Inverse folding.
């Protein structure tokens, strides 16, 4: 009995390490490709450091597109799971319904959580893109298609399509979704700007809550397209609202945008 318990403990640690390792690998590969692409552009005479718009595009394409995508697909190809781990098919009417419900659920949760923070006087951290958008609003317009085409699909492929499935396979649905959501939230720390630990903690809590919804929708729908579209549209709508706010002097998106 003791040996069986020890085997289960070691197995759990291995799976956790494997999941975190996939997330770290995704970022490392993405960063390497980002620097490589930047070096090529600079060597070609492109004033990258003076063009934040180009910087953002290169970063998103190389990180969420090439980095996350290549690591996720590489893991799927070489792992013991194979492509059976990936739940992907042509969307059905049921998938459309889950997409609408999930998108509405994300915004309801975001507004509710922001109201809770506001009630207790707790501020949330700001995503670095929000700061850049304040200086260059056109960046936000570019982020709209990037969110739908790369950010949503790239992050969902890595964190839901691979990491969550690894964890659910070992720990069960609810525990797997919860751990994957924590990994997802922590992975965004580098993109957040906070002046104190409370801001960072509150924002990470929001990321975990939103990720739980995405993870639950993925498990219920059984199709990676669903959380990918939800995630992409969720970000795109926020970027659109923020752009409208910055360019019209109407404080419309304050309650919605957390990063």
């Amino acid at each position: 009995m003791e040996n069986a318990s020890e085997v289960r403990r070691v197995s759990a640690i291995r799976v956790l390490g494997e999941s975190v390792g996939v997330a770290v690998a995704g970022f490392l590969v993405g960063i390497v490709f980002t620097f490589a692409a930047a070096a090529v552009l600079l060597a070609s005479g492109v004033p990258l450091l003076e063009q934040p718009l180009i910087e953002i595009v290169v970063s998103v394409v190389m990180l969420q597109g090439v980095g996350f995508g290549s690591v996720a697909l590489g893991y799927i190809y070489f792992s013991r799971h194979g492509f059976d781990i990936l739940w992907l098919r042509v969307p059905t009417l049921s998938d459309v319904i889950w997409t609408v419900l999930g998108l509405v659920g994300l915004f309801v949760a975001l507004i509710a959580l922001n109201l809770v923070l506001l009630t207790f006087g707790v501020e949330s951290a700001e995503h670095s893109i929000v700061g850049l958008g304040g200086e260059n609003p056109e960046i936000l317009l570019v982020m709209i298609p990037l969110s739908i085409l790369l950010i949503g699909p790239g992050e969902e492929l890595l964190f839901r399509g691979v990491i969550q499935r690894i964890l659910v396979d070992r720990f069960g649905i609810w525990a797997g979704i919860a751990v994957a959501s924590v990994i997802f939230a922590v992975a965004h720390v580098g993109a957040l700007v906070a002046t104190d630990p409370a801001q960072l903690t509150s924002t990470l809590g929001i990321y975990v809550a939103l990720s739980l919804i995405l993870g639950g929708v993925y498990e219920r729908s059984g199709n990676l397209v669903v959380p990918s579209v939800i995630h992409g549209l969720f970000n795109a709508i926020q970027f659109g609202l923020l752009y409208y706010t910055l360019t019209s002097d109407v404080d419309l998106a304050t309650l919605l945008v957390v990063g």
User: Anything to note?
Assistant: The radius of gyration is 19 Å. The longest strand covers residues 126-127. Residues 2-43 form the longest helix (42 residues). The chain has a mean pLDDT of 90.
